[in-house]
């Protein structure tokens, strides 16, 4: 079960340059996760503990997983991902043991970044979740907290969690020594959207008439993931039209499709 529940990547291929519009978040993640890994001695010299765990929170598809992968890439750390939702749905009865395995694996493969996606699935307030009252889910969360408490002597392991449902979290996991550094990862602003469109059209054969800045202005409320799929969708419209060059109208058609709740969601566009 260990192999299925965890996704291990020796060298993730995401770099900070691949992430559009999250300059402040990149800076914070570097300070909270990268520095303590790279300059552990400096923290000891100064006599402070680095943040225990970092929690990334914000809407779906905004680049939280990318941020965690980019830190692992930058620090040559093993990236080990576990999805909270899978622990609850697929590995019933095994949650606590899998959490133990997760930290054991990280310890074998250090330096390592542990990434726990959808942490709300195992750490929701009792009142807000059907499953959190479940003794099994409670046990999984207790195991996670106890692994984090015994963290100091574990060496080069950093832990990052992510959630789209910050409001649902049990505040116990935010206490000092646990996820004590919060970083909000919002939907991109207009400059961020333009940068994300630049990144995702880099390898595309774009016509002269394509105006990504204009597209950025028209896509308020879209996430990075939705912008990425808009770019792909624009390419699909060109192919359907038997062209090899992608034109501005393809982007307009793609946006219309996404607005109508196409593949990635149905967030309203202003
Ligand atoms: P979720 O909360 O749904 O797990 P997430 O915040 O972890 O989402 P990612 O998995 O990092 O989102 O992003 C999904 C995809 O969307 C990325 O692989 C990338 O193609 C695109 N994307 C999202 N945000 C950005 C961004 N800021 N810059 C560039 N691409 C982005």
Automatic annotation (TrEMBL):
Keyword Cytoplasm: yes
Principal localisation: cytoplasm
Residues that coordinate or bind ATP: 61-66, 200
One BP annotation, GO: proteasomal protein catabolic process
Subcellular location: Cytoplasm
Keyword ATP-binding: yes
Primary role: ATPase which is responsible for recognizing, binding, unfolding and translocation of substrate proteins into the archaeal 20S proteasome core particle. Is essential for opening the gate of the 20S proteasome via an interaction with its C-terminus, thereby allowing substrate entry and access to the site of proteolysis. Thus, the C-termini of the proteasomal ATPase function like a 'key in a lock' to induce gate opening and therefore regulate proteolysis.
Gene name, Swiss-Prot/TrEMBL: pan
Organism of provenance: Haloarcula pellucida
Gene Ontology terms, MF aspect: ATP binding; ATP hydrolysis activity
GO cellular component, one term: cytoplasm
Residues of the AAA+ ATPase domain: 50-189
Family: Belongs to the AAA ATPase family.
Name used for this protein in its record: Proteasome-activating nucleotidase
Keyword field: ATP-binding, Chaperone, Coiled coil, Cytoplasm, Nucleotide-binding, Proteasome
Domain notes: Consists of three main regions, an N-terminal coiled-coil domain that may assist in substrate recognition, an interdomain involved in PAN hexamerization, and a C-terminal ATPase domain of the AAA type.
Oligomer status and interactors: Homohexamer. The hexameric complex has a two-ring architecture resembling a top hat that caps the 20S proteasome core at one or both ends. Upon ATP-binding, the C-terminus of PAN interacts with the alpha-rings of the proteasome core by binding to the intersubunit pockets.
């Amino acid at each position: 079960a260990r192999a299925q529940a965890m996704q291990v990547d020796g060298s993730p291929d995401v770099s900070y340059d691949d992430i559009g519009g999250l300059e402040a978040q990149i800076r914070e993640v570097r300070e909270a996760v990268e520095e303590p890994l790279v300059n552990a001695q400096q923290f000891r010299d100064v006599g402070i503990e680095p943040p225990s765990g970092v929690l990334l929170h914000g809407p779906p598809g905004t680049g939280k997983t990318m941020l965690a992968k980019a830190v692992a890439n930058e620090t040559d750390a093993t990236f080990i991902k576990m999805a909270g939702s899978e622990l609850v749905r697929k590995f019933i009865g095994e949650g606590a043991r899998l959490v133990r395995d997760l930290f054991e694996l990280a310890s074998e493969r250090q330096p390592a970044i542990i990434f726990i996606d959808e942490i709300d699935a195992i750490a929701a307030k009792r009142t807000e979740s059907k499953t959190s009252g479940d003794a099994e889910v409670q046990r999984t969360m207790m195991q996670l907290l106890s692994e984090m408490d015994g963290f100091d002597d574990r060496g080069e392991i950093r832990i990052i969690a992510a959630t789209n449902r910050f409001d649902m979290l049990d505040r116990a996991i935010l206490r000092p020594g646990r996820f004590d550094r919060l970083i909000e990862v919002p939907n991109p602003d207009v400059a961020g959207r333009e940068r994300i469109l630049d990144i995702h059209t880099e390898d595309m054969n774009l016509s002269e008439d394509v105006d990504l800045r204009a597209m950025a202005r028209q896509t308020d409320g879209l996430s990075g993931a939705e912008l990425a799929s808009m770019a792909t969708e624009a390419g699909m419209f060109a192919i359907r039209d038997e062209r090899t060059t992608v034109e501005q109208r393809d982007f307009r058609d793609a946006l219309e499709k996404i607005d109508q709740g196409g593949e990635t969601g149905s967030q309203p566009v202003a």
